[in-house]
Design goal:
This protein has 344 residues and is α/β, with parallel strands linked by helices. 31% of the residues lie in helices and 15% in strands. It has a 7-stranded mixed β-sheet with strand order 5-6-9-10-11-12-13. Strand 12, helix 8 (237-249) and strand 13 form a beta-alpha-beta unit.
Length: 344
């Protein structure tokens, strides 16, 4: 495993690149428990935790925090799979079972937020691998991360498939009182058979929507990223309707569709999965994604239009993926001259 390949180089100059951590700082562990059997954790002490998004990225944010590399959710389409190749690990099973844990992430973030060079920009989490994957139940990095962001009143957003986010509900409520906080849960479909094979390590879609309901019941606005919409497996009009209907019933503030994209690393793993479970679709996928990682614009526009029409029918609106939404503070008890609280 090549730890020295993980470098930070803001100027893009390989000669100036510095390792994010040294090989002598890595501790490898396994846990003989059912939920972690077959998984290896590489605990490291990172030198940097706030990452700048490349300028060419389509993401609507500039800074991210990723306390983990690799993901036990094992989603076969995950675009982050390519990052494991930088460690000489494969983008398939190794991505699912060799998890890098930045054990000093909370302390490092707190120090970086307090730096005079930091100007309080929005930080997005869960945009690479899920910060509420199963490993978080053991390592508990997110409470410290959220607390640091809260204490510095730094705006942030979280995208997750993990219901473990409910553990940190109180911290999220506290943070929302002092800064912009955006929460999105990813639910691309509600088909149980599709879920079991394509997202085997995640909570079931209905459990994720239960989490949306709990968040909204506690006054935390939560949108749903309807991602990915999987061509020929999850894009039938009846499937789209069932998914949007379930999302609306959860109380989600918005629904944003995103069609499956297949970047290098993820593409090979997904196509192998497709050949095993749905071999009759391989040629159709080769044609649909013949031009690159993304489905054709006409297909993306069709899905977006269908989902937005259904969202309007069920009373929820679209939103830009990954962008923060202002949480509305709960009203205080009545006073002689009540004041309407607002965070706007």
């Amino acid at each position: 495993m090549r730890w020295e390949n993980l470098t930070v180089d803001p100027a893009g100059d390989p000669a100036r690149a510095a390792a994010l951590f040294g090989a002598d700082a890595v501790t490898t562990r396994t846990f003989d428990t059912p939920e972690f059997r077959g998984i290896t954790f590489h605990e490291i002490r990172a030198r940097s935790i706030v990452n700048r998004v490349p300028g060419a990225s389509r993401m609507p944010f500039e800074w991210t925090v990723n306390p983990y590399r690799g993901c036990t959710h094992a989603c076969v389409y995950c675009f982050a799979r390519k990052s494991h190749s930088y460690l000489d690990l494969d983008t398939g099973l190794d991505f699912d079972s060799q998890i890098v844990v930045k054990v000093n992430a909370p302390d490092l973030l707190r120090r970086q937020l307090g730096s005079r060079r930091w100007h309080g920009e929005h930080i997005a989490m869960g945009t690479n691998v899920d910060c509420y994957q199963r490993a978080e139940g053991r390592y508990r990095l997110m409470p410290g991360i959220i607390a640091a962001l809260r204490d510095h009143a730094n705006p942030f957003s979280i995208l997750t498939k993990g219901t473990l986010i409910l553990r940190d509900l109180e911290l999220l409520k506290q943070a929302s009182e002092v800064t912009d906080v955006g929460i999105s849960v990813s639910v691309g479909f509600t088909d149980p058979e599709l879920w079991r094979t394509v997202e085997p390590g995640t909570p079931a879609p209905e459990r994720r929507l239960d989490a949306v309901r709990v968040l909204t019941d506690h006054g935390i606005g939560c949108g749903v990223l309807m991602a990915p919409v999987i061509p020929f497996l999850g894009d039938d009009p009846a499937q789209l309707r069932a998914t949007v209907r379930a999302i609306a019933a959860s109380g989600a503030t918005s629904v944003t569709p995103l069609v499956l994209h297949l970047r290098p690393g993820a593409r090979e793993w997904f196509m192998a999965w497709l050949a095993h479970y749905h071999p009759h679709l391989v040629r159709r996928y080769e044609r649909l994604y013949a031009e690159g990682s993304y489905a054709p614009k006409w297909y993306q526009r069709r899905i977006t239009r269908q989902v937005h029409e259904l969202a309007q029918e069920y009373g929820i609106g679209p939103s830009r993926a990954g962008m923060p939404r202002r949480m509305t503070a709960a009203p205080e008890p009545a006073a002689p001259e009540p004041t309407q609280l607002t965070l706007l």
